[in-house]
Amino acid sequence: MERRLEGRTGNVYRPALITSESGRAFVTQKNVSESGACFRGDVPVQVGDTIEYSFNGMENIRAIVRWCEGDLFGVEHLESAQFWDDASVSHPFRPLRVPLEHFAKISCAEWMAFSSVKNISQSGACLTKPAELNVGALITVELLGLVFEAATVKWVKGERCGIKFARRLSASELNEILIRKANLELRTGFERATSS
User: 108 and 79: one domain?
Assistant: First the structure.
């Protein structure tokens, strides 16, 4: 069936995480149907590439890139995809959380400690909780050479806590974090390989 005749079941505007052979990137999902979706973002994909994408914390959806025009590209799902979930209906936008697993320096006026960032989104992050951290605290987070000032601790649960950034990050800022993390991993792997 010609895809243009199918129509789109849902016009959306939500962040999505694309995973391809060249890495991960944040994009904006523009529309979606059971058989495919359209995205806008600076992602090095070509027609025929297989990708995975996720949004709202849902499982990855596998797809093949069918067309590219500038920063727009369309994919065909490899399986019929569930693209609406209960969270999408009751909360049309939920920040996309991306696993990160990288150390960070946490500080406030009285103290400084090191922590591990477990995941990150446009609005905040989840990290291991330094002993001194309490709900409501204003902190500064240094991660991969970037500084996020006036972040607020929103919740504490066991050894983890959630923080909210003072301002929402753009997709390009999140991509910069992923690029820095990937470059660090490549550099570390290269140094290990050449030192042996």
Answer: no
Domain membership of residue 138 as a residue range: 98-187
Residue 195 covered by a domain: no
Task: Read off the tokens for 129.
Answer: 């909780």
Across the strands, what pairs with 107?
112, 140
Q: Is 103 found in the same domain as 86?
A: no
- ∠ CA 149-152-154, nearest 5°, is 155
pTM score: 0.61
94-108 pLDDT, tens digit per residue, is 566 778 889 999 998
Phi first, then psi: give them for residue 5, nearest 5 degrees: -80, -25
Q: What angle do CA 161, 95, 22 make, to 5 degrees?
A: 105
Intra-chain end-to-end CA distance of the chain, in Å: 55
Instruction: Answer for the pair 9, 32: CB distance below 8 angstroms, yes or no.
Output: yes
Nearest to 145 by CA among 185, 172, 105: 105
> Is residue 69, in this structure, part of any structural domain at all?
yes
45 plus 65 within the same structural domain: yes
